[in-house]
Amino acid sequence: xxxxxxxxxxxxxxxxxxxxxxxxxxxxxxxxxxxxxxxxxxxxxxxxxxxxxxxxxxxxxxxxxxxxxxxxxxxxxxxxxxxxxxxxxxxxxxxxxxxxxxxxxxxxxxxxxxxxxxxxxxxxxxxxxxxxxxxxxxxxxxxxxxxxxxxxxxxxxxxxxxxxxxxxxxxxxxxxxxxxxxxxxxxxxxxxxxxxxxxxxxxxxxxxxxxxxxxxxxxxxxxxxxxxxxxxxxxxxxxxxxxxxxxxxxxxxxxxxxxxxxxxxxxxxxxxxxxxxxxxxxxxxxxxxxxxxxxxxxxxxxxxxxxxxxxxxxxxxxxxxxxxxxxxxxxxxxxxxxxxxxxxxxxxxxxxxxxxxxxxxxxxxxxxxxxxxxxxxxxxxxxxxxxxxxxxxxxxxxxxxxxxxxxxxxxxxxxxxxxxxxxxxxxxxxxxxxxxxxxxxxxxxxxxxxxxxxxxxxxxxxxxxxxxxxxxxxxxxxxxxxxxxxxxxxxxxxxxxxxxxxxxxxxxxxxxxxxxxxxxxxxxxxxxxxxxxx
Length: 534
Ligand code: F6P
Prior knowledge:
about 10% strand; about 525 residues; Glucose-6-phosphate isomerase; glucose-6-phosphate isomerase activity; gluconeogenesis; 5-stranded parallel beta sheet; SIS_PGI_2
């Protein structure tokens, strides 16, 4: 029997087993993996020794070790685009790497040094805008050119001592309108972040920002920066090469905040903290590259995820950081995980015989508790939860609030696992004076099935190093899942069709084209938008 089938039947066999019953003396330690500041506890899942053994065998059989080396050494593993996948090189600045006989790190280091000088100039006031020192930075980008730096600026707020940073992504004019509304064009720096420099949302917003600035600033291009792989296109937009920070095509959009796409973050927190952020990720890379599979955090995070998704058939997973500053992490992970592993065919183009990546969603705790946790506890679908918590907050005066936060986090995973039986519910209702059929009815509503799986990632404090480590952990998890699924995690053809159709629909909405060949629904909705323009 193939390992996939064995794992499927194992999931079936242990489905009704109580997670709580698996706890013996030291299960919590034995079902945890640790490195540096992190402990990943997966003891509150239905995984036992034979299951873990099978999962590790699954990873071994997929050729994970060789594929991991192929990625780190610059092989062209993104083979539908003929590219290497080397975002990790951006955080190992001292290690040389050759692609096609060329040491690609010379260029990476040169750009990094320019970023540092520029960030220092902006932060220190040496870079002068029309109105003097820069007070505000607006990063215009979308997807990987937005989610990473936007999440990171929020995550590392306690280290933010540079100009204010704002992020505009949506082509909805409301986004840029509301962002620019409070800003002074004479002291604002606009960063146009786009790997391709063709993304319609970003280029449209960049033109809007340019016009906004031109109304008050004689030469707006002087206050524009570009982050892109296309020197030609940034020049055509009018940005001087001195303020263009380039990178190679082997940095995928959703893996790009470690390099130039992270410029807004570097300006916000300063080059020193940015370097710490890179070091935290580099330490996770080293761990991923060298630790035994059973002790390897990204590997175990991936295997637990696959156990739940591919073998237990739980279609979604909730990411629940008990850390308000990680409130954009779920959105970031939606791109990272779903754009990477939301695929339907294997590397060789064959339809997958199993499900690819799960739906990823979430919100920070405790907010989510007052919104969707009801379904997680008592709904008919099982949703594995990934909790995250720091042992300490950044605010010493508010330590009591951190204790309350942590108590809530731990209580949720406990409640999910423990549940509340019908007997317990009956006792509860009897104590309130209910009897007979009404007692039974009321008690049924108060039953929690329990044995709902969760994991907890715990770390000391959300510092730049820790934050870098968390993001790298999730990047490698995606890689491991992709390797085991046998898919290409580094392309994203699924976003293309919608882009093409939007371009074709634009003239239909303005009345320049009639929309021949379109379906009735699309035409009717288009007509409504068209009518509203007159
Ligand atoms: O449309 C998807 C996508 O290509 C993402 O993969 C990418 O992060 C985003 O668009 C933005 O692309 P760019 O940085 O080229 O503007």
